[in-house]
Design goal:
- The chain is of the alpha+beta class.
- It has 4 domains: 155 residues, Molybdenum Cofactor Biosythetic Enzyme, Chain A (3-Layer(aba) Sandwich); 47 residues, Molybdopterin biosynthesis moea protein, domain 2; 88 residues, Beta Complex (Molybdopterin biosynthesis moeA protein, domain 3), CATH 2.170.190.11; 69 residues, Beta Barrel (Beta-clip).
- 17% of the residues lie in helices and 30% in strands.
- It has 7 helices and 28 strands.
- The chain has a 6-stranded mixed sheet, with no helix packed on it.
- α3 runs parallel beside α6.
- It is elongated, with a radius of gyration of 32 Å.
Length: 401
Amino acid sequence: MRGFSHRVSVDDALKWLTEATAPLDAEDVSLDAAAGRVTAGHVVSNQRVPDFARSMMDGYAVRAEDTEGASTYNPLRLKLVGEILPGAVSDVIIKAGQAVRIMTGAAVPPGANGVLPAEYAEEQNDEVLVHATVSPGKHVGQPGEDIQQGDVVLPASRVLRPQDVGLLSSIGAAEVSVVRRPRVRIVITGDELLPAGTPPHGCKIPDANGPMLSALVHRDGGEPDVGTIVADDPDSVLQAMRSDADVVLVSGGSSVGQEDHAPRLLAEHGELAIHGIAMRPSSPTGMGRLDGRLVFLLPGNPVSCLCAYDFFAGRAIRKLGGRNETWPYRTMCGSLVRKISSAIGRLDYARVQCDDAGIVPLAVSGASILSSTTRADGFVIVPADSEGFAAETEVEVLLYD
């Protein structure tokens, strides 16, 4: 066993990561699978929406000039010449003194330039009594009013929302080009581990990192693949690390102990670009490549694993999938109730609660105490050039929810 002779800064680790990652290639998906995916490029409409003048009300298509001066006390009479329903093709052409019954969404016929709502009209035999004046264009949706041909309707790198999928359908798109989801292999190592969800017994503990990492990968737009727990022997670890995934996450065995095989294996069979980072927790984190794929060596302690994932692996997965690589957390500001102490040269990840009194620090150390993150509302980052924050300092909190 040996300690780390050198730890790189978080900034240097992030710089390496930025240079090592780029969005994956594109694939076409159907609209029913498009929500939550990321557009690979600008989406341009090849037609206008709507493509015809349509009624925005149930009522009567009229010539606006034929209604001038109409009121409840001075109704004007127009000849009723037919009816137009949505989706129907009509050969009606409105002439002076005429009106046609029309429903919402139906095509406004030639000659008409306004729609009189039904509540301002009264039918008598084959006539319509007009009780209100209609201005030109009133209650008529104009061609291209929503979308013009050639419009960029959705930008590149857009995470598609349900309404975006509806808009794609409205321009006649059956598919959309999206960035391929990163495939993420999650390798959980440790002879002391039991399968997730198993009650602890003896000297063994259930795996917490596998379910947590799988949920984080889902959140960041990746496709997680969690295998069985891998024994602490070099051959088994190396075999598990070799994968056809885009990213490999190794949880446990990332430090410099007797059973920490992953760093040595990555150095021997691939590239161990970074091992040991000046941060607390998560200092044993490593990064590199194996068979051309990104590999992240995440500490086995759950809080360290979460922290290392959020700082590095999650950022890479989001970028590979075309998403914004920065923190996926909203932020708030508040005043510290108590001080947070740190050390120059080391970044700290301090879990905090937010209450009426202000921002309450919970923990900076305690890498194995996962409940410190479930009791926390979020975390504060203490930069490497700071000795911490005094009580009553205004700080930014990144919120877990």
